[in-house]
Design goal:
The protein has about 300 residues and is an alpha/beta fold. Helix content is about 45%, strand content about 15%. The chain has helices at about 20-30, 50-60, 80-100, 125-140, 165-175, 185-190, 195-200, 225-235, 255-260, 270-295, and strands at about 5-10, 35-40, 65-70, 105-115, 145-150, 180-185, 205-210, 240-245. Strand 2 (about 35-40), helix 2 (about 50-60) and strand 3 (about 65-70) form a beta-alpha-beta unit. Bound molecules: manganese (II) ion.
């Protein structure tokens, strides 16, 4: 079933590393499963061989998006100048990877470290973060690259946990190419529901992660996808939707530990991914038809 949203899958569904062989498996499998986009994690931007990956993307007719979370030692949501400087460098390096892959999107937990904090943020740390993101957005705008703020659950950041916090932070950044990146796995933990916060984003929503409550197969957890797809259809959301799922069957030494992927939720990446693509395409199609019949 076709979809009017570009549909993507996170590379960690296929492979935990990014050697040329791993990149080939991930990119070829993404194309074979029928997706338009592969989301490539760039926690360490230097691990991506840009010209090699760009060539493989072209061969398979795929677009890429770039996502990352900052580390505690590169936290821009901080009052420590060294951490902020390293975070700024990492984000600009990730932007350079996006530019080299002709990717139009860099997002994730780019506004803070992706970690469990031992205390709340401070106003000064929040402003430091916003000022780096403002510079990143201005750099990105030169190549028409969009910057996405993925608000996450309280165990993975102390800065942005909800849509409202993200919109307020975006007002502080005040750059037109910065968008809300909504992940229903995180929303399921922190929001009162899906519909009201998604509608609150309006046209500032620019990227969506689709994942189940246990980050396994879609439809086998407690997320109300009728509500999610209904809200996205009512918003006329036409942006990317990317499937995220994590299992101990595929391990990235850095990312899997950060995301607390301790259990095996699946072993067959292709079955998982093709099921997810159909689930999202069919769900959005049905939500659009329901909306159409209501008039
Ligand atoms: Mn996500």
């Amino acid at each position: 079933m076709s979809s009017s949203n570009p549909l993507g899958v996170h590379a960690l569904v296929w492979t935990g590393g990014w050697s040329p062989d791993e990149a080939e498996v991930a990119i070829a499998s993404t194309a074979r499963a029928g997706f338009d986009i592969i989301e490539i994690p760039a926690l360490d931007p230097s691990r991506i061989d840009v010209s090699d990956t760009a060539r493989r993307l072209r061969e398979h007719g795929l677009a890429a998006t770039i996502s990352l979370g900052l580390a505690p030692d590169s936290d821009i949501n901080s009052e420590d100048a060294d951490r902020i400087a390293l975070g700024r460098r990492t984000l600009l390096d990730a932007l350079a990877v996006a530019r080299g892959l002709q990717a139009s999107y860099v997002g994730g937990v780019i506004f803070s470290a992706m970690t469990k904090y031992s205390g709340p943020t401070t106003d000064r740390a929040r402003r430091n973060s916003a000022s780096v993101i403002k510079e990143l957005a201005q750099e990105a705008a030169r190549d028409d690259i969009t910057i996405g703020l993925e608000f996450v659950n309280r165990y993975e950041s102390n800065l942005l946990n909800t849509v409202q916090q993200t919109l307020d932070y975006m007002d502080l950044v005040d750059e037109p190419n910065v968008v809300v990146h909504a992940d229903v796995y995180h929303m399921n933990i922190e929001e009162r529901g899906f519909r009201a916060p998604l509608l609150l984003c309006a046209d500032r929503l620019g990227y969506v992660h689709i994942g189940e409550s246990n980050r396994g197969y879609l439809g086998q957890g407690t997320i109300d996808f009728d509500e999610v797809f209904g809200a996205l259809a009512d918003l006329d959301y036409s942006g990317p939707m990317t499937f995220e799922s994590f299992s101990s069957a595929v391990v990235d030494p850095q990312l899997s530990t950060t995301l607390a992927v301790w259990r095996n939720l699946w072993s067959d990446s292709m079955d998982l991914a093709t099921h997810a693509r159909e689930f999202i395409a069919a769900g959005m199609e049905q939500a659009r038809q329901t909306r159409g019949s209501r008039g």
